[in-house]
Amino acid sequence: MSEFISLYSGSSGNSSVVRCGERYLIIDMGKGVRTTSAALKALDLNISDCAGILVTHEHSDHVKGLSTFLKKNPLPVYGAAATLDFLDANGIVPVSCELRSLSGGEEDIGDFGVTAFPTSHDVPCVGYRIHTPDGKTMTIATDLGVLTPPVHEALSGCDLVALESNYDLHMLRSGPYPYYLRSRIESQRGHLSNDECSAKLLELIQEGCEKFALCHLSQENNSPQLALQTVFSTLGAAGVVPDKDCVVQTQRRNEISPALAF
Fold it and tell me: Where is the Metallo-beta-lactamase domain (predicted)?
């Protein structure tokens, strides 16, 4: 059985694991080593069973904890070449860290098959499509302003999808953020709204996917309740019944979310 487990998710930090049996991958590490290590310990995940760390991009809410963690746990780090160059040049990873760039097709990382694909953000950024040892497939895509063809392709045909549902448009436009920041978030190089996420989830459900994790919710411009309400409204209008036809779960900001088996 494979599982997707968010250790923490939001603008203050993001990290998750994809596990199959005892083996697992870590995706991002945006909080300190104590927080991440405590979460891994709570899940009974041994560092020796981790095949590596996948990094989506260079923003601090995805890489803040890497430096100290890797000094204690010398795992290989995977990502786009531009991101790895940034981490190396800015001392975000130890000099001795093994950096392996991913591009193009599926590559083996331990017992997992991993494909990186580009997402539309304001720095080089990727999502990951992961094949687990038991033959399942999941995709994680956060920090994207628009669903481009590579993203659509990566999300198609999965057993589980972890997709960004960052903001509610009304909350963003009526909130305290200055205009330039609102414009950045709404742009095609910003983040995905609840409405955009919901529309994509409906499409994926109609293609056969049944399990979804809503990730990277904004604390200022969204809420778990509002994100779910938007999804359920979109699905309900199409005759899809949540908890019967699909499972949709928001990921918690500061603690481990319930595991989603797929």
Answer: 12-191
- Rounded Cα distance, 192 and 199, in Å: 11
Residue range 87-91: average pLDDT? 97
Dihedral sign for Cα atoms in the order 14, 18, 21, 24: negative
The answer to whether the CB of 78 falls within 8 A of the CB of 109 is yes
Q: What are phi and psi of 188, to 5 degrees?
A: -70, -5
pTM of the model: 0.97
CA–CA separation, 49 vs 137, rounded Å? 20
Question: 49-74 pLDDT, tens per residue?
Answer: 999 999 999 999 999 999 999 999 99
At residue 208, does pLDDT exceed 90?
yes
Strands 126-131 and 137-141, by their bridges, are antiparallel
* Level-2 CATH architecture, domain 2-261: 4-Layer Sandwich (3.60)
Polymer length of the chain: 262
Domain ranges of the chain: 2-261
Judge contact between 215 and 163, C-beta under 8 A: yes
**Angle subtended at Cα 148 by Cα 147 and Cα 153, rounded to the nearest 5 degrees:** 95
DSSP 8-state class, residue 256: P
Cβ(240)–Cβ(205) under 8 Å?
yes
How many angstroms separate the CA atoms of 93 and 109, rounded? 19
From the list 233, 222, 225, the residue with the least C-alpha distance to 192 is 222
**Alpha-carbon torsion, ordered 230, 244, 238, 258, to 10 deg:** 30
